[in-house]
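Let us work through a complete example step by step.
Step 1: write down the sequence.
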Amino acid sequence: KQLFFFASALITCTPNDPELGDSYCVETYREGSYCTGEGICSNPFRTGCLHNVLPDHFTKLRTCNSYDDANATGRGDCAISRFDYDEVRILNQNWEGAMFSSWIMQIVLSELLDVPTTIETGKPNTEASMDFYDPGLGFSYHDAAYDWDALHTAFEHPDCESFQDERKSNGEEYRSCAHVLPEAWNGQNKNIANDVQEGLIEPTTGTGGVSKLSWYVPIFTARRNSKLLSYIGMTENAGSENRRLMASTFLRPQTWKYFCEKVSLDNCTTPYYDDEGLLIAARPPSDQLEEAKYFSTDSYHGYFAATKDNDCDANPFNCTGHIAYGPCGWSSFAVSQAHYLGIHVKGNGPDPAGGYSYGQMVEIYKAANYTKNNVLFVWWTPDPTVQEFLGTDAEFLRVLLPSPTEECMEARTTKEERCSMDPTIRLGKEEGSCDSEAHSAQKVLVTSFKKRTFDADEAFHSPAYDAIENIKISDIHLDYMFRRWYKRNTDQWNYDPREAVCTWAAENINILINYVPESHPRSFRMEEQNKPAMYGAMVTALICIVLVGAVSISTFFYRKEKVMVYAQPTFLYMLLVGLLFLGIGAILLPANVSQGTCIAKEWFVLLGYSLELVPLIVKVAAINKIFQSATKFKRVSIDTKKMYMAVGSVIIVVSIFLLIWTVVDPPDRQSNRRLTDDINGDGGQIIETEYLCRSDSAAWFAISYFYQFMLLIAATVLAFQNRNVRQEFNDSSRLAFIIYAHSMLLLLRMMVVYFGSSLKANLVATITSYLLSADIIQTLAIYFVPKLH
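Step 2: predict the structure and record it as tokens.
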């Protein structure tokens, strides 16, 4: 179908006027509308359809999308998605059934499932909008019925929002992008099969409706001649008599320009009335667009004429009646059907095959209804035009054609054949001239849409894909919306269709809720902390710090004792500072998470381990060197300054690593969401949110643990080498115990981190804090207490 874009017909108002301002907008539209500064009544559904119509049951605002301006949340128009779901873009099409379906999808996703959702019109939203929540109440038809390129773009660039933002910033031309095509007819089966085979789209699912193209006549035509309700009646008379029947019954519609130039005596400068007193033309057309119209309310009401194509006296073997059908790109087979069934009609539209655009078709039918001229019409259901005339004498009556068969369907003309410039090729095969088959329209979803959904962690799975798969809208429901749309007749091309869709959604809220996937809508709750365990860990760490302080005082007091002299008091002080740092880190671990605590605990823990183990390693390495030389009767001189420099060098390297980590990718407060088995009041699962310290790259933590592990390896080797050294100088046995305990505690810490994804973050931090405290206690007990004793 071709472009059928309606110009704005918005309701105007007077800002700040007590009668023609906000109150007028509420009266004309509904509560929630107000008079804007531009003098236009606003969209009352900008905060959400259900929020507006069912405020007692739906108190939350609809979810913001990329089409909302920066002040939308501040005005209270929408709320930012709590779930960080990817935005879904639904492709707009150019017939109302698909357009209304896209709105239903947008309402379900934006208002029931917190999924940001937009409608792709093929143009920037500032130029053409079909968004249900559009402040300007835009109602833009897409230029094309099937914008397959938009789906292909979404396959290549799944994040349509970022893709289009990037193109805009680079000054590139707008390129449409969409994840969902709401409705595909059977004429697209070849395109669908090709794209499924290439992996671009998923296998399609039904929309819930049954679609069909048919020949129609209005009731008033059928009452004049009931034979016109079937191909049998149309071909009952043989030869020229049948031709004369069709040519005399179905005259050809004429444009406004034709009427004023060929029929009106004064080029429509004065109103023209027909013999029955009906106003045909109130004025001449004002521009080329009006010149091509077949009907314009209150200005031109149409005219049907018997042209040379209808003249069976002059052309007894070629005269025809008129039939109105769509452009050759539609899956319509009227040319082939009329020719091979012997029904002498043809179209005279501007299309290569004689077809008319969507808008022209609607104008022709309205002109026929106004003037009560007979019309033979190819149209489809479901569609609002059919519902507009329901119950009137212009109600659509289907013309019976031969029943479709599989053989007939396989012999149909292709789009290329239907649009051929060769009339013979356009006719196709006789076997393909049966009636169009009723079929289930299909939803088309891009494969990248599904992949992005299910590649995410389960707690982050967007419900959008499953919800769109679930949405089924029957013909009965669409017809109901169409009737409400035309019945209201307040602002037909802007507010009224929104009112019709939203009213249906509110009246059928249970149906919408059934579209919601299992385990949704989800809700959040904060992680419940085990406060006794957390405070217990912090108190234990504080006790450890007190013990370190007490041991430090005792060490200083007994620093001249032989056992302390052999142990090198300076190295003992370093070790105690390291234990103090570990104690501070143990307090910070279960504390409230912030960027400051995240950075501080990594500094204190890593420097603490370094100051605890590196001095011991340096001292034991020196002792080992002395006694190795003694066994060879060599003298060796130990420079204590170099020993201190060795410790200092390692500490400096560690500090540089921590500094780089802090600057480049600092550990920060990040949320972690866990999907629980608990159910909320809406029947969805509860997502538990917890906060933990994490850098963007896990390499930093891996390097930290690897470094600690290497320290233990070095200490183990040196302790083994020192096993034969005199006990006064030898710390190897105690060092072995410390290393063993360190190794077990480090292993436990690594296991806690590794399996932490299945544990609560606060519990992981608490356990780690207890393990650090245990490390401090075992070091004091094994290494210091015997010396002080």
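Step 3: interpret the result. The radius of gyration is 40 Å.
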